[in-house]
Predict the 3D structure of the following.
Amino acid sequence: MCGIFGSFNFRRFVKLYDENKQRGNFAMGSMYISKMKDASPGLAKDVYVRKHEGVVDLQEHYSFHKDYEQFLGHTQAPTSINRSFSPATTHPFDSVHYTVAHNGVLENHKELGKEMMPGWWKDDSVDSEVIPGILSINVEFDEEIVLSAHDFDGGKTEDVLTIEKTCSMLKGIYGCWVYSKLTGDTFIVRNGSTLYGNIQTGDFSSVFVPKLCETELKQGVVYCVTSEGLTECGNFETNSQFFI
Amino acid sequence: MSKCVVPVSGGLDSTVILNWVLAEDHEVHAVSFNYGQRHFHKEMACALESCSDRCASHKTINLDFFKDIVNSSSLVNDDIDVAKTKDVLGDPQTVNYVPNRNMMMLSICTAYAESIGATKVYHGSALVDSQAGYWDGSSEFLEAINNVNSLNRRDRVEIVAPLITKSKKDIIELGVNLGVNFNNTWTCYEGKEQACGECPACSSRIQGFLEAGYIDPVKYSRVIPWDQHKAKKIC
């Protein structure tokens, strides 16, 4: 089963990783990013990305992460005919402004990719790749979002508006974490895909994990993920083909 | 009037396809399968009703040995609970998946079509099948199986899936236009007296009716907010 998960505590993160890789069939690949304490958001060296074919024993990574404060992961099961692991074609997917991991199956990624990223989008591109691309296009060129950067009245942030706009364009099933290289903030959303969380700790997971992630998160809501917990900060219209 | 084979499960999609093909004035040879699925008796009652007096022939093919060799699917193994949508959505292949089922059934339909001189098999795969985790309901699968069939040197049977790009809403609207009696279709994997409303099959069906603006005439064991969505009865 594909899974997304995250925590501000590495031991809890290891538990979430173990639960996500075990549920369902198998994890073809896995990755996580870890953010250094006091990281500069967009600085690559402060946000460490590690990808693995198959599964990995994260217990071995404890000592490495003593200077890191946030962990975001993805375990990958194949959703297309391409079953081989390749670091270039696996999660997370990046644009200039955002890093994204996605669990689910999108329906209109080809149309969106061709329309909004002509010349870059290929027919064999993974559906998830369209998400960070559209996020970047929206944050750079959407008039409402660009103008909001000058809004000092405490309205929704640029990141939230961008994620709302992007989610409203996507069709299909998705649960995503979105890391903003602009601000260093992290967000999670779901439309159809399972997603559970802990409102107090900020932990989240595609699978239900007793005592760690037990609250079923709402569809159509943008949650801001901090060490103080999960906060509803935006919303979008859901368009899942499944009534839950 | 050309001959064709239509696998009719008694579900919503295959019933719409059946009605569509009959409206196109084809000579329809229907096929239903018992592969040991827990909801067979509910599906079969609907399939018999839909095909009665309208199809040139209707065969029921018994594959219930499948239960003995496949134990990983909730549909054929009573020891595995049918997965609820909220627990598995996003999973590329849920426990409800029956290994290689469509390949098996379409192969049999193709063999049957070839033997009776039919050139097409009309298959009811829909867009939502791929999203629900069924690789054998995808466009890629359809293309691949037709590539295999094209190796036949003499009698080429094409598998056609007119609904494969259509949402459940589109399929229901098509069914309404064709006069389909949706009360005579069975979707729920559970196969109990009332549909559960919680398995992925029910979920996509309910969502389709809600988006199309119609009340599903099939009864559910959970409350569906038809009123809130201003759904109307199908005339």
User: Anything to note?
Assistant: The domain at 3-178 of chain B is CATH 3.40.50.620 (Rossmann fold). The beta strands of chain B are 3-7, 27-34, 57-62, 120-122, 158-160. Chain B is about 35% helix and 10% strand.
